[in-house]
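Exercise: predict the fold of this chain.
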Amino acid sequence: MAHPGRPPRTRTRISVDVERGVFMISVAAELADMHPQTLRMYEARGLIEPQRSPKGTRLYSQADVERLRRIQEMTTELGLNLAGVERVLELEAQLEGARRRLEQLEARSRRMREELEAELDSVRRSMRGELVPIRHSTAIVRASDVRTPPRSARRIPVERER
């Protein structure tokens, strides 16, 4: 409800990159539902790498908080110890790298197949008048490479559908 004499309220929506460090350790710990000391321990083990402000304050991103929640899930719900969590995260990173590499290879394969098909079409169009079928063969042979049979044998058999 607008109040007389007051300008209308406006809402501003701010979007922040999920990789940008914006949360201090106390806020990140609260969002991940864990103690700040746990975050420091995870950092010491290399499980999380928060960004640092110019003065050295840890700054956690939304992606960091999601990773902390994932670690919490693996330790509490799945019963993994931190060595197990490290291994799972390593394997997930390797799997993601392999998936990206596979996508790159598939894209490259698709491009090469398209180039090959275009080149084959070009060759077929350029040689259309020079190619002749050879009986009982699927080979493509230049007309100049085929010996001309005697006039009596020059009949071309025509197969008709019945």
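Check your answer against the key: Residues 81-133 form one domain.
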